[in-house]
Amino acid sequence: MSDTQVPEIMRQGKIAPWLYIAPALLIMTAFIVYPGINTFLLSFKNEDGTMSAAAACVEGEPCWGVLENFRYALTSPSMLNAFRNNLLWVFLMVGGTVGLGLLIAVLADRVKYEALAKAIIFMPMAISFVGAGIIWKFVYAYGTSQVQIGLLNAIVRKLGGEPISWLSEPAFNNFALILVGIWMWTGFCMTILSASLKSVPTEILEAARVDGATEWRVFWKVMVPIIMPTIAVVVTTMVINVLKIFDIVYVMTGGNYGTEVIANRMYGEMYVSHQSGRSAAIAVILILLTIPFMIWNVRRFRAQEAIR
Amino acid sequence: MISDRIKMILSGLPTHVVLIGLCLIWLVPTFGLLVTSLRPFQDINQSGWWTALAPPRGAEEYSQTCASCHGSNGKEIATADLTDPELIGQYSRSIKLLAMLKREIDGQPHLQGAPAPEPQQAADIADYLKRISGIAARPRFTLSNYIDALMGYRGTANYAADCATGEQALDLNCNVSDVMNPRGMGRAFVNSLLVTIPCVILPLLFASFAGYAFSWLDFPGRMLLFALLVGLQIVPLQMTLIPISRVYAQLGMNGTFIGIWLFHTGFGLPYAIYLMRNFIGSLPREIFESAYLDGMSHWTVFYKLALPLSVPALASLAIFQFLWIWNDLLVALVFLGGQKPVLTYQISNMVSSLGAGWHLLTAAAFVSMALPMIVFFALQRFFVRGMLAGAVKG
Predict the structure, then answer these.
(1) Do B348 and A191 touch (CB under 8 A)?
(2) What is the separation of C-alpha A73 from the centre of its chain, rounded to a whole number of angstroms?
(3) Residues A262 and A286: beta-carbon distance below 8 Å
(4) How far is residue B263's CA from residue B177's CA, in Å, rounded to a whole number?
C-alpha cells in the first residue's frame, strides 16, 4: 500500500477528484455505512427498535440492562449451541480445506494432468450454495427400506450397515454439512497454496534432495516453512469465511436438528422471530469475532509486501 | 534401464491414486445429479442413478420365472402375448398377477411346478411387463425433466404428455409463451440475467472511476479515505438487510430491479475499488506523464488509457461479481422474493414446496449451474488471477 506520488504535472483542480469518487462514495454510504450504523444502534434497542433493550427485562430474572440483547446473544441455550457448532465448523472446515488444498497442490504439481485436476477441484466454486445443497441432499438422501437412491446410504447398505438419515441425525448432521463446505472451498485454498508453492525456488528443493532428504522431509522441512506466510493468510481468510457461514445450513437443514450456526441465528431472529434487537446484537458479535483475524491478516500482508 | 522406469512409475503411483481418487470424489456428486436429471421420473425414485445403465427393474425376475416359456421377448406363446397392452392391462397390479400365476391353465399349473414368486418379485415382474407391453414404456434417458422445469410444469405426468391430451394446468398455454411462465425456470433465468448484468457493470464502472482517482489524482485525505472504503469489506451483508428493506418499503422499492442493483453495487464496491486502485496504480507512471504532457485531460487519460489498460483486472472483477450475484440467494430472497423470482429463489422454493420432486429439482439445479460453469471454464485464467491478487495482497 505504498503511497504513489502523483506526478507534479498532473495536479488538477480541487473538485475533480471528488467527481470521480462521488458515485462510489454515495452508494457505499447509503448501502453499507448508514445501515451498518443503524444496525449497531438497533442492538441496544428492543424487538422493534422503539425502546431501550432494558425494556425487555423481566423482574427476578437476570438482566444486563441496555445490553440485554447481548445477554441473550451470549448466554441463551440456542446461541450457545450455535457457538459450539460454529467452533466445530471452524476447526473441521478450515483444517479440511487447508489440509486437502495443500495436499492436492503438492500432488498436482507432479503430474501431467495438473490443469485438469485443479479445474475439477476448483469447479464447486462456480456453483451456488443452492445448487450444491441439492447436489449433496441427493447424496445424503434417506430412502425407504427397499430402495436407497442416495449414494451414501447405498454404500452403507452394500457394506452391510443400516441406512442413516444423515441430515436429521444429530450425531452426523453437522459433519455432513461441514463436508459440503469442504467440497466447495478446497479449490480456493488449493489455488492460492499452489501459486505459492510454484514460487519456491527449485534450486533449494533440488539441493535438499541431493543431500538425501526424503520427499516427506523436503515437504515438511523446506516447502512448508517457505510458504508458511501464505498458509497463515489462507487460514485466517478461511476462518473469517467460516465464521460467517450461512447458506449451506439454510439450504440443507434450515438450521433444524441442532445444526444452527451464528449467522443462521441472526437471520432467524430477524425474519422468523422478528427480534431485530437480538439479531443486531448477534451481527455485532459476529463482526467483533472476525476483527482480530482481519487485523492479523492485514499485518501479515504488510510484512509480506515489505519482504518483496 | 527397464527396472528403473518401472521403479519410477511405481514411486509415482501413490500420487496418481490419491489425486485421481480425490478428483473422482469431487466429481461424483455432480455427475450423479446430471445423470438423475436425464432419467424418467418414475425411474429416479425406484433405483439409484448408478443403475441407470443396468437392466430395468424386474428384468432379472422375469427371466427367472417367465422367460423359459414366454421367451425373452415375451412373444413365444401366441395366445398369451406379453407385449399386448390389453392383456397386460388386466394384470397391472401384482396381486392379480400373482393370482394368475397360481391358477391352472388347460388343466396344467401355470408355473409348471416352479415356486410362485414372492410379492415383491411379482411387483417387479408386473412393472417389467408394463414396460415391455408399452403401457408404461419409457426411455432410459429423457429431456422431459428439463422441459418441465423450464416451463414450470407441476403435474403428475409431464409437460409434453399433458399438452398432447389437452389436460394441461390453467397457467400453461402449450405454446412458446410457456417459457415465460412465472413458475418456470425459463422466466427465472431471464430474471437472473436482468439482475446480474447491471450488477456487474455498475460496480466496475464506479470502481474504475474511484480507482483512477485514488491512483492518479491528488486530494487531501486520499489514503485515509481509501483505507476506510476498503475496510468496509468487514461489514457482513446480513447486518445491512433490515435498515435497507425498511427504507425500500417506504420508497416502494421492494421487489424492483433497481433496488437490488443498487444494493449489490454497494456491496461489490469495496473489493472492486481495492483491486482497481492496485491495478491502475501499478501501471507505469511514464505513460500517464507523457499523455498529460501531450495536453490530454484527466478524463481523456482515464477512458483512453487507464480503462483499456486495466482490462485484465476488469475481467477478473466481472467474473467475481457475476458468480457472486448469479449464485446469491439471500439478497434476492429479501429484496425480490416471489415478485421477480430468480433461479436460486425458484429452486429453494421448489425444495420447500415440492418435497422430493427430484426430477424437477435436479434439472432446475443444472439449468442454474449451466451459465456459471461455462463462464468459469472459459475464463478460469482471469478468475484465478483476480483471486490471487485479492488473497496475496489482501
Answers:
(1) no
(2) 20
(3) yes
(4) 32
What pTM, to 2 d.p., does this model score?
A: 0.84
Instruction: Name chain A contacts of B361, Cβ cutoff 8 Å.
Output: 134
Instruction: Specify the residue for cell string 442492538.
Output: A43
Show contacts of A236-240: CB within 8 Å, 24+ apart: A236/A293, A236/A296, A236/A297, A236/A300, A237/A297, A237/B391, A238/A93, A238/A94, A238/A97, A238/A98, A238/A185, A238/A188, A238/A189, A239/A90, A239/A94, A239/A293, A240/A290, A240/A293, A240/A294, A240/A297
What residues pair up with B109 in beta bridges, in sequence order? B104
The grid cell for B362 is 435436479
Touching check for A153 and chain B: CB below 8 Å?
no
DSSP alpha helix (H) spans, A76-150 = 77-108, 114-122, 129-139
Q: Residues A136, A183: contact at Cβ < 8 Å? A: yes
- Please give the pLDDT value at position B208: 92
B388–A20 CB contact, under 8 Å: no
Give the model's pLDDT for residue A99: 94
Q: Are B391 and A192 within 8 A, CB to CB?
A: yes
Taking an 8 Å cut-off on Cβ atoms, the answer to whether B362 and A14 are in contact is no
Provide the shortest C-alpha distance from residue B3 to chain A (in Å). Answer: 21
Distance CA B253, CA A212 (A): 69
pLDDT band (50, 70, 90) for residue A145:
low
Considering only CA atoms, which of A242, A194, A193 is closest in space to residue A94? A242
All residues of chain A having their beta carbon less than 8 Å from the beta carbon of residue B28 are 151
Touching check for A303 and chain B: CB below 8 Å?
A: no
Confidence (pLDDT) at A72 = 82
| CB-CB neighbors (< 8 A) of B54 in chain A | none
**SS3 per-residue string spanning chain B:** CHHHHHHHHHHHHHHHHHHHHHHHHHHHHHHHHHHHHCCCHHHHCCCCHHHCCCCCCCHHHHHHHCHHHHCCCCCCCHHHCCCCHHHHHCCCCHHHHHHHHHCEECCEECCCCCCCCCHHHHHHHHHHHHHHHCCCCCCCCCCHHHHHHHHCCCCCCCHHHHHHHCCCCCCCCCCHHHHHCCCCHHHHHHHHHHHHHHHHHHHHHHHHHHHHHHHHCCCCCHHHHHHHHHHHHHCCHHHHHHHHHHHHHHHCCCCCHHHHHHHHHHHHHHHHHHHHHHHHHCCCHHHHHHHHHCCCCHHHHHHHHHHHHCHHHHHHHHHHHHHHHHCCCHHHHHHCCCCCCCHHHHHHHHHHHHCCCHHHHHHHHHHHHHHHHHHHHHCHHHHHHHHHHHHHHC
B185-393 homologous superfamily: MetI-like (1.10.3720.10)
d(CA B81, CA A279): 69
Residue type for position A229: P
Contacts of B210 in chain A (CB under 8 A): 20-21, 23-25
pLDDT in tens, B165-184: 777 776 777 777 777 777 88
The full set of domains in chain A, from first to last, is: 70-126+184-307 (1.10.3720.10)
Comparing B154 with A72, the larger pLDDT belongs to: A72
pLDDT single digits (tens) B23-70: 999 999 999 999 888 888 877 777 788 877 777 777 777 777 777 777
| Cell numbers linked to B174 | 402449450
State the average pLDDT for chain B: 81
CB contacts < 8 A (A, B): 282
If DSSP codes are grouped into helix, strand and coil, which group holds residue A113? Answer: coil
CB-CB under 8 Å, B213 with A266 = no
CA distance A239 to chain B (A): 13
